[in-house]
From TrEMBL:
This protein's GO CC annotations: extracellular region
Entry EC number(s): 3.2.1.15
GO biological process: cell wall organization; pectin catabolic process
Protein name: endo-polygalacturonase
Organism of provenance: Gymnopus androsaceus JB14
Pfam assignment, any one: Glyco_hydro_28
InterPro entries: Glyco_hydro_28 (IPR000743), Glycosyl_hydrlase_28 (IPR050434), PbH1 (IPR006626), Pectin_lyas_fold (IPR012334), Pectin_lyase_fold/virulence (IPR011050)
Catalytic activity, as annotated: (1,4-alpha-D-galacturonosyl)n+m + H2O = (1,4-alpha-D-galacturonosyl)n + (1,4-alpha-D-galacturonosyl)m
Domain of life: Eukaryota
Signal sequence region: 1-22
Tagged with keyword Lipoprotein: no
């Protein structure tokens, strides 16, 4: 193509025609941005200065392939009538360095204890990260409802804090999920989530690693809820600490899910779970109920607690250690590195699965 271009250019020059080449603009080396509506698509180096996103507006940035993006100030959101996501970060091979800065959703302006089930309209999710690359070292503070939605393929989220702990006051924060994942080939590690709902909820995807994270105040580590046609496979939860939460570890499929809905290849290793009120570990095909009449149109298989010990401590007096409510589960499940203490024993309906090892 370039040879053709040169020869035709030479040809035109030989004809003595004078003209101006429309040279495509090369990527600007660096851009410093301080507004939600700056076009970042041509910037290979982006520095984000502090700014406020006004009512009714959202951030929707698709960075250039391989862009290096560095925060140099906080991004604060005014109370808004906009729908979520209030910020979207997209692009391939992005290196995003939060440098310890904060995206502040001013959740207290919305919190009324009802989450996304009613009351004040709450834009959600607050932040959506999709595409691929590495996002590190920032805080997502006080989100109206669900905090971070994760999509794409090939993302690593490292050392991100989701802090909705202010929503504990008078139980006003609700549905403040930390990470909602529908993505493949992703790793979430070294993150801290303080909230009132799922620390992580994996809705679909494969090759997902959740490791060395700390979760408190919420609903623990969750695969689900799985809807019709959704598949979750090959997930590892390792080295995480979950404390003071309603559930420790859960897998839940909607009771009416079918059309190939399945959960398989979930491995837990070296997790420490303490202060659980309701269920230490719950595996159920009865969602929205924890335990009732499980559906049979989906499948759960290949669930293991192996590698390093995963310990779970139930403290609620009515809490149950391990409950399984299967309509269609199968295969050999190795629970040899699972230890659960406290509470009472749960009910186990494992259908065709065969569970070996463990203490619960
Ligand atoms: C950024 O926000 C955090 C959290 O609110 C705050 O502690 C910090 O002082 C802010 N930094 C600046 C430079 O405003
Ligand atoms: C399972 O996921 C890991 C990373 O999480 C990946 O390295 C591995 O290739 C995946 N295995 C399969 C069979 O997809
Ligand atoms: C889970 O354990 C079973 C039984 O030992 C084994 O066949 C299976 O490969 C294991 N699955 C994973 C994902 O390690
Ligand atoms: C369990 O799911 C499999 C795969 O979808 C299906 O073939 C089978 O009929 C289901 N079992 C029951 C009892 O419905």
């Amino acid at each position: 193509m370039s040879i053709l271009f040169k020869s035709s250019a030479l040809h035109l020059l030989a004809l003595g025609i004078v003209f101006v080449f429309a040279v495509p603009s090369t990527k600007r080396a660096s851009c410093t941005i301080s507004s939600y509506d700056t076009d970042v698509s041509d910037c290979s180096l982006v520095t984000i200065s502090a700014f406020t996103v006004p009512d009714g507006e959202v951030i929707d940035w698709t960075f250039a392939d391989g862009a290096e993006v560095t925060m140099a100030g906080n991004i604060t959101f005014e109370q808004t009538s906009a729908d979520g996501p209030l910020a979207t970060f997209d692009g391939d091979g992005i290196i995003f360095k939060g440098a310890g800065y904060t995206l502040d959703g001013n959740g207290a302006d919305y919190w009324d204890g009802e989450g996304t089930n009613g009351g004040v309209a709450k834009p959600h999710p607050f932040l959506k990260i999709t595409g691929s690359g590495t996002y590190t070292d920032f805080t997502v503070l006080n989100t109206p409802a669900q905090a971070v939605s994760v999509g794409g393929e090939g993302l690593t989220l490292d050392a991100i804090t989701v802090d909705n702990s202010a929503g504990d006051e008078d139980s006003l924060g609700h549905n403040t999920d930390g990470f909602d994942v529908s993505a493949s080939s992703i790793t979430i590690k070294n993150c801290i989530v303080k909230n009132q709902d799922d620390c992580i909820a994996i809705n679909s995807g494969s090759s997902i690693t959740f490791e060395n994270n700390q979760c408190s105040g919420g609903h623990g580590m969750f695969v689900g809820s799985i809807q019709s046609g959704k598949i979750v496979s090959n997930v590892t939860f390792s080295g995480n600490e979950v404390s003071n939460s309603m559930y420790g570890i859960r897998i839940k499929v909607e009771s009416d899910a079918d059309d190939g809905a399945s959960v398989s290849g979930i491995t837990y290793s070296g997790n420490t779970v303490t202060g659980i009120d309701k269920y230490g570990v719950l595996i159920s095909q009865s969602y929205p109920d924890d335990f009732s009449t499980p559906g049979t149109g989906s499948t759960i298989s290949d669930i293991n607690f192996t590698g390093e010990e995963t310990s779970v401590e139930v403290t609620g007096s009515s809490g149950e250690r391990l409950a399984i409510d299967c309509g269609n589960c199968s295969g050999d499940w190795d629970f040899s590195e699972l230890t659960i203490t406290g509470g009472s024993a749960g009910t186990m309906d494992v259908d065709d699965a065969s569970i070996s090892g463990g203490s619960y």
